Amino acid sequence: MEKRWKFNKKCEKGIIKSVEKRAMTVKATMGMLHKQLNPDDNRSVIPLGHGDPSPFKCFHPPVAAVNAIVDALRSTRFNGYRYPTDFPSAKKAVAEYISRDLPYRLSESDVCITVGCNQAILATISSLSSPPGSNILLPMPTYPTYDACSAVSGVEVRHYNLLPTKEWEVDLHSVEALADDNTVAIVIINPGNPCGSVYTHQHLENVAKMAEKLGLLVIADEVYEHMTFGDTPFVRMGTFALKAPVLTIGSISKRWLVPGWRVGWLVTTDPNGILQNSELMERIQAFLDLASNPTTFIQGALPEILEKTKDEFFSNANNILRQDADIIYEKLEKKIPCISCPHKPQGSMFVMVKLDVSLLDDIEDDTEFCLKIAKEEKVMILPGSTLGMKNWLRITFALEPLVLQEGLERIEGFCKRHSKKV
Ligand SMILES: *Cc1c(COP(=O)(O)O)cnc(C)c1O
User: Fold this and answer.
1) Are residues 91 and 214 in the same domain?
2) Per-residue pLDDT tens for 102-116?
3) Does residue 13 lie within any of the structural domains?
């Protein structure tokens, strides 16, 4: 008789199943698209699906950051096991870096160092699972890591709307309608992934007022901080933390263009001191004590990375992204009938565009569009369905402008070929 191992039982119910179902993550979708690629097509793949500009020369990291890592390694000071408390200088540097944009000052005790922003998300969301029955408010379209972390942690998710016709602002009516006595937090991603939105001072203040009214913690995902290239400057959610407590999370992944370096932070931006010494922060700290820490030499290098990177590096990157945003908006909004772009991106490296499948001949929905364009044009695009929005597409424009142009030409050709003949 075949031996039956207990660990190998099928999970019909419970957490694993719900993760499988809900977290059709970006990675899984991209894997599915990669399988479509035609090996006989000699053209290069155009990666518009996930945001990682690091392969492009124009998006290489600042020399100061690379030197900081090399110096940290050469010093031989960072070769041993280290506890998170062993890096007060990294925490202090993050506190000072975030404080630059706030009307009050943070200290190192406000800061936890994490393995990228994603670990900050997991630490926070998993710590919100008690009291049992708690729910959190996430944006729609979403950043699916939040949904996946909620699913593994048993936290109920409710999606509030972002409004495409109002520059993807938070629909505060839907926030109010969704919240109940068990709603503990709201996630605000600004600058926005996937919408490329940048919220005004006024809008963020309105969000804070709503959070105050409903008694919610604000989780401010600012992983794209200062990556803005439109008219609206970046404002930190923590600016309004006198109204409602704010947990600010971020990393060097996007602004320094090094998503593989895996270092980020989780910061209590909360001058009222509601979070410090709270049960929530104790749970987050316990989680992080158990989890792996970022590599020691990256933590050792972090103060220099934050302090010595020149403004010129950031403005160069923003200038290229501005150019890219212009290119993509011109093409998608004005030249391709089945695609419309309700809002020109002002920040981050993404845009959400709407697909009108009624103008296409043999394409049923966004997923089929993405599968076929991967197969026929070697262009990778994320179907909006992965983020909860059917018949939308999420496109990253953080590419070398010439490569982006080439990708857009291929999209245009594909859409022409598949459009209904009149
Ligand atoms: C990329 C991204 C993250 C993850 O950042 P890492 O530092 O790579 O873990 C978190 N939130 C949003 C909105 C992102 O786009």
Assistant:
1) yes
2) 999 999 999 999 999
3) no
Task: Looking at the CA of residue 253, tell me the nearest atom of ligand 1.
Answer: 7
| Residue 239 beta carbon below 6 angstroms from any ligand 1 atom | no
| CATH code, domain carrying 33 | 3.90.1150.10
Residues 6+ apart with CB under 8 A from 198: 190, 191, 192, 228, 230, 232, 233, 234, 346, 347
Residue 95 token pair:
């506190």
Q: What's the pLDDT tens digit per position in 320-355?
A: 999 999 999 999 999 999 999 999 999 999 999 999
- At 229, give phi and psi (nearest 5°): -145, 20
Cβ of 222 closer than 6 Å to ligand 1, yes or no, is no
Q: Is the CB of 270 under 6 A from ligand 1?
A: no
User: What atom of ligand 1 comes closest to residue 51's alpha carbon?
Assistant: 1
Could you tell me the pLDDT band of residue 149, with boundaries at 50, 70 and 90?
very high
Number of neighbours of residue 210 by Cβ within 10 angstroms: 20
> Measured from the CA of 189, which atom of ligand 1 is nearest?
13
Find the CATH number of the domain harbouring 72: 3.40.640.10
Residues 187 and 266 in one domain: yes
β-partners of residue 185 are: 136, 217
